Amino acid sequence: MTTAVDIRQLFIASRTQLRDAAARILGCRQRAEDVVQDAYVKLADGIEELHILNPGAYLFQLVRNLAIDRHRRAAFEQQVFSPGEEDLQPGSNVTPEVQAIHTQELVRVARALDKLPERTRAAFELHRLAGKTQREVAAHLGISTTLVNFMIRDAMECCRDALRAA
Questions:
Q1: Where do the domains of the chain lie?
Q2: Rounded to an integer, what distance in angstroms lies between the CA atom of residue 102 and that of residue 159?
Q3: CA angle 77, 139, 49 (to 5 degrees)
Q4: CATH number of 96-164
Q5: Which CATH code, of 3.40.30, 3.30.160, 1.10.1740, 3.20.20, is assigned to 4-81?
Q6: Which of 12, 41, 148, 151 sits at 20 to 30 Å (Cα–Cα) from 132?
Q7: DSSP tag of 127
Q8: Angle at Cα 132 formed by Cα 129 and Cα 134, nearest 5°?
Q9: What is the pTM for the complete model shown?
Q10: Whether pLDDT at 91 is above 50
């Protein structure tokens, strides 16, 4: 059985390789370092509950999965939050009218979220705004990951409907 001391020693010995593996996925050493630290925290929190047969492989797989998750989230956020084509025109600034429209849209989304059941709203906010994984949200709320998935889907549909209704 692997102990916390064994994992810590393996982690320290493999830190550079772990960071390099994450950096290959993320393309950024600083973000890779964050992923490696997140992996250690995640592993240290639950080491007593795990029975790891190959700690080295487990550690590398954990870092790889976290790096892929971080990369996917960054790509999604860039796609969702990137400026619209009208904002990319040279010399153009966001007009007060466009800013007012965006503010109204945010108000609509906030009102839509207020109408959701508390647990659904919490699942959505933890996942989308706080950046928690569905598994982390499920553990926090004491529900299954499948239910978290449905709750997030329902909240997204509610937000989309609120924006379309305008």
A1: 4-81, 96-164
A2: 14
A3: 115
A4: 1.10.10.10
A5: 1.10.1740
A6: 12
A7: I
A8: 115
A9: 0.49
A10: no
